Amino acid sequence: MKILDPRWMRVGLVILVIVGVLLLTLSGYLTPALDSATRPVIGIQGWISTRFLALKDLFTLPRDVASLRQRNAELEAEVSRLNTDVITYQQQLKEAQVLYALLDFARTSPENQYVACSVIGRDPSPFLQYIIIDHGSDQGIKFGMPVVTDNGLVGTVDAVTAGASRIQLITDPASVVNIQLENTGTEATITGSITGEIQLSMLPQDVTVQNGDIILTSGLGGKYPASIMVGQVSSVTKQVNSLFQQATMQPSVDFSNLTVVLVITNFRPLDIVPLMP
Amino acid sequence: MIAILGIPLVVLLVIIQTTVVSRLNISYGMMDIVLVSLIAVGIHPRSKHIIYWFLLAGFLLAIISPIRLMYPLVPYALTGFLVEYLRKRIWRIPLILMAILTFLGSLISQFTAYLTIYFTQTALPLMDSILQVSLPSITLNILIGLPIYLVIKDWGDTLSPQEVE
């Protein structure tokens, strides 16, 4: 019979052995034996691979270091540029916030015309409280015009050149402003000092003044428009045998951080000195 | 060379004084970087015609200041004459000279400012003016004097090297 031919018998035997080994492998009986057989191979493969990669790095790394250094320099330059941009944007945002606040303030008093000016300097003498702004007669600034911020009264224009003006702050020792208390309507005056502290004077004894009372300009004397915020009463001293009460006030404007101010250009200050007896 | 650079240097110092230094107060005192720098220039052995520098600075500050004529032209001129007078007498100890001149110059400046404001604008309280303004200002000027002297000396030596015979 052909089926009992030894050649076919060998083929069948080989197929049986292969199928048997496959079945044993799939069923997991050969796993320990395979592990034992493949472990040295994997070890050798890993050893060769590590050496090959090290050898490859030896030849390719210098080029990578150069490119990485170049890339690092580019990124550092980019970071530096972005940092500069961030600082610029923060400054612009701050300026925009100040200008928005000034714009809001200007909208609350539409009868006034304003010119916004940057503060570019302060007086070199420590005894005086003056600032210098970057607008002058070329921009319509004139002597005596009141100066404000969104927080309140700053001072008055004291001297003008073509491109700059000097502002006397209300904290200056020689500055006197006529004011009124918002609650009672009582009129008084405020005077600056060398320490920047502002004193209220000419306050009648019979008026009740409390800490926190709002102080506005009264408009008397024609130097400032009426009803501009000046500050709040911070302390009151009342002596029985004195003609007037003494008080100090906290200005609503932070004079140490003035950056932008508004000059009221349509206000004409009055000079009442010739009328004084 | 130093004389040529005098005008822009004085203008730059005045700008720095009004824009930067005048915003940096300690107590209520303020350093006078123009005065101290000019004193440092004045005691440099090879500086010349320093009185004109002082007059120029005093004139520029007088334009800016609301109390003209007297202040700061007069104290600057007086300090300039003092520098010219003293530097020929105690030139061997420049640091002491710097401290003395800074003290005297600041004192003259503060005194003149006080008197001018007192008689032309408002009666300032004397003790407050001395304790709160003048003393801190003079102290600041003396403190800033040493580093400014060193910078100006180095700068002067570079621009006007000593001739070797």
Question: In summary, what is this structure?
Answer:
The complex is a heterodimer of chains A (277) and B (165). Chain A has 277 residues and is α+β, with helices and mostly antiparallel strands.
Report on this model:
- The complex is a heterodimer of chains A (277) and B (165).
- Chain A is an alpha+beta fold.
- Chain A has a domain at 114-267: Beta Barrel (Thrombin, subunit H).
- Chain A has two helices and twelve strands.
- Chain A has helices spanning 6-27, 31-108, and strands at residues 114-122, 130-133, 146-149, 152-160, 165-169, 176-181, 187-191, 198-204, 214-217, 229-237, 244-251, 260-264.
- In chain A, the strands form two sheets. Chain A has a six-stranded antiparallel barrel. Chain A has a six-stranded antiparallel barrel with strand order 6-7-8-11-10-9.
- The longest helix of chain A has 78 residues, at 31-108.
- With 165 residues, chain B is mainly alpha-helical.
- Chain B has a single domain (2-158), classed as Arp2/3 complex 21 kDa subunit ARPC3 (Orthogonal Bundle), CATH 1.10.1760.
- Helix content of chain B is 72%, strand content 0%.
- Chain B has helices spanning 2-19, 33-42, 50-64, 73-87, 94-120, 126-159.
- The two termini of chain B are 20 Å apart.
- At the A-B interface, strand 1 of A face helix 1, helix 5 and helix 6 of B.
